[in-house]
Structures are given as structure tokens and as C-alpha cells.
Amino acid sequence: MNSLPSLVLAFLVIVLQVLDSAVICNGGKTSTYVRKVEKTVDMPLDSDVFGVPPGYNAPQQVHLTQGDHVGKAVIVSWVTEDEPGSSTVVYWSENSKEKKKAKGKFNIYRFFNYTSGFIHHCTIRNLEYNTKYYYVVGVDHTMRKFWFTTPPGVGPNVPYTFGLIGDLGQSFDSNRTLTHYEQNPVKGEAVLFVGDLSYADNYPNHDNVRWDTWGRFTERVVAYQPWIWTAGNHEIDFAPEIGETEPFKPYMHRYHVPYQASNSTAPFWYSIKRASAYIIVLSSYSAYGKYTPQYKWLEEELPKVNRSETPWLIVLMHSPWYNSYNYHYMEGETMRVMYEPWFVQYKVDVVFAGHVHAYERTERISNIAYNIVNGLCTPVKDQSAPVYITIGDGGNIEGLANNMTEPQPAYSAYREASFGHAIFDIKNKTHAYYSWHRNHDGYAVEADSMWFFNRYWHPVDESSASQ
């Protein structure tokens, strides 16, 4: 008679073991670091980081991005307030005294009761690779001098170091993030920016003065190295209640990208090559369903990637597909359903996203077997799939996302509610070293890191479980 309770007990033990491994498996690490709870506050308008440069019609908000598909051009942008002035850029290489000129254009826009300054954009073309250039803007009035370095030529074993920042804003925490990035001993040569720039739309009537302050705040970095722009939800600026019905208006006037070089029909999705990386930028807030321009473009774009030339395939977007925080949960799900099979087919190495104001890194996983009726809806380990990294932790006024789903899902390798930035350091065609740095540590401290093994040239399992 005692055998029945024993059988029941044994059965319950087996069931609990199965549940533990299949359902409540904790596949990764939730950081034990607890950031001091402080309210995130925007810096006041009279902060020195927002200072207007001295001199009549002095150029301000100077920023760079790549200006072509292969890294031999840059787009220089800036704003003048008093009058249009000159849209010409004077530039010369470090080893040459010959000064050249490139002519640009300017525009203005109005948003509710705000009128912008004169926004200049000038593309400098036919630059030499791996060369330091000086450039001057503000010709004929107050001239300001800056410099940048072009990337090495496109090639499979070319090392290159990217910084990663998202959801930056202009709070005191934003300033710490930018300073932390500047002081990192591993120097980023360009920034992959995953969206949400100024957060001007958090102010009444989407106060566009906060676009100007953000441009002046970030100038200290982005005037010297290109930032690769991704549009986030805070760039939409859709406000019909005040008569503003043109989405992305301030962003489109201020931040130009070389979208036509990759045959894109809109500046929200495009691609570039830089050193050994092929970078695809997607728009979470533009139409992406079947037959849409973005869908058709990506469908034609992915087969063009030559991994013998650019072995590292990196995708940027704003809304993450995999997210174990209770914020923006499943917002990226419809895009994932559309595009994830392609990411696995073409062996994307890593996908960087923002939107969730925290940090998270996944294992290599996919959820492409699910077809709505088969019940196969749990992500599985997949060595052809990307690592998904959420880095929406730049420091904006909306504060940290610190409410996580429990238990931590198996696909999540590391997560932490802190502000910070990351570095993606490509060594050669097979290896890249990735590190994430929280703002509250010393500049050289890595709170999370991993070696990436290229999916095309060295598809070894680098998951945390295998190490």
C-alpha cells in the first residue's frame, strides 16, 4: 500500500525537473549590480554643454555621418542662426597643404511656433581611406575647425572599432554616458547609434529648442567621428493636436544619411560598408510588411552582402525583437515574424537595438519554426542566428527600465538595468571582441563582454553555456 505514494512522489519529482528545464530555465545572468535609484533629470538650458559657440553666425551642432556606401565620403552638417552664411566646407588631408572646397545646401523648417536655424548639409566625396582630414565650416564669418579620420578600405581582415549608444537624450546621465564613451581606453572610431536622439517630444509642443541643445551637446564627439543614424520612436514627432502631421520632420531636416547609395527610397532604412563590416539600418516605425518599400529593399539587399569582402554583418534597429523587460514588451514581434527567417538564412552576426532603457544580451537563438498553429513558439538555440543586444541605456529623461520578467528566460544571457555604452571591436574576419560599460564603473571596466565568432567564417558556438 505504501508504493502508491512513492510512485506519486517520484512522478511529481520528474514533472518538476521537466518544468525546471523546459519552462523556468534560467539560461543567463541577471546582474547583481544595483544602480542607486536617482531621478533622471535633463540638464538645464544654461548648462555649459549647451553653450553656443562665440562669434557672429558661428556654426553650431556640427555632426558627421558616412556619405556614401563604402566610406570614402562624409556628410558634414551644421546650423547657423544669424543668417544662412556659406554652405561650403574647406578641407585638407593631414599630409597635404592643398585645401579643397565642397559646396553644400541649407534648409529650414517650422514646427508649431518654432522656426529652425539654417541647417547646412555638405557631402565631401572622393576621400582617401585611412586618412586624417581637417575641415572648416563657417567660411566668411566665424570659422570653426574640426577633424575626422576616414576608415580603412573595405576588406575582410580589416580591424575596426565601433562604439554603440542608444536612447541618449540630454540628461545628466546622458552626459555621463558620452563622457564615459570619450574616456574609454578602447577608442571607438565611429558610433552605431540605435535611435532616440534628443527627446524633444517629451516637452510641451515637442519643443524643438531641445533639438538644438542636443546638437550642441553631442558636437564634442560627432563633429570628429561619424555616427551612423537609426530613427527611433522619439524621432517621429507626429503631433496632429498642434497641426504637425508630417512624421520625422525635425529628424529628416537635421540628420541626413546616404540612403540612396544603397538604392533605398527613404532615409530610414539603408546600408553602408565600413572596413570589414556591412551595416544594415532598419526602421521599426516605417511600414515593413510584405510589398512595402522597406520589405522589398531588404529582400534585395541581403543577397548583395559579400561575406568574402565584408565578413561582419550587423543590423541596427530601434525596437528589440527579444526583450525580457516589462517595457515595450513584444513591440518588435511583427517585424521579427517578417524578417527573422532572413536573418538566420543570411547568418547575421549581431543585431543592436534600443528602445528599452536598459541593457540585455541574448544567446544565439531563433523562433522561426513557429507558424501560428504548430505550437513551436519557444525560442531555440540556433548557431545561424544573430546575438541580439539591447542597448537603449544612454541616459534619457524617461529613466531606467528596471522591471524584468521573472524568471529570466533561457535565451537571455545577461541583463542589467544601468546606463552605459558598448564597444564592438572587430579584430579580423573571424573574431570580434564586444564589451559593455556601465556608467558607474571606471572607464576600463567591462560589466559584460564576449568574443564574437563570425557566423560565416568561424561559426563556433560562443554561447555562455558552452564556455
Report on the structure:
By secondary structure, the chain is α+β, with helices and mostly antiparallel strands. It has a domain at 159-195 and 268-466: 4-Layer Sandwich (Purple Acid Phosphatase, chain A, domain 2). The chain has six helices and 25 strands. The protein has helices at 3-22, 172-183, 209-222, 249-254, 293-301, 333-345, and strands at residues 29-30, 60-66, 74-80, 88-93, 100-103, 105-107, 110-111, 114-115, 118-124, 132-137, 144-149, 160-165, 190-193, 227-228, 270-274, 277-281, 312-316, 350-353, 359-366, 380-381, 387-391, 412-416, 420-426, 431-438, 448-453. Strands 1, 15, 16, 17, 18, 19, 20, 21 and 22 form a nine-stranded mixed β-sheet that branches. A six-stranded mixed β-sheet has the order 14-13-12-23-24-25, covered by helices on one side. The model is unreliable at 1-5 and 7-25 (pLDDT under 50).
Key descriptive features of the protein:
disordered N terminus; globular; 6-stranded mixed β-sheet; 467 residues; alpha+beta; Purple Acid Phosphatase, chain A, domain 2; 25 strands; 9-stranded mixed β-sheet
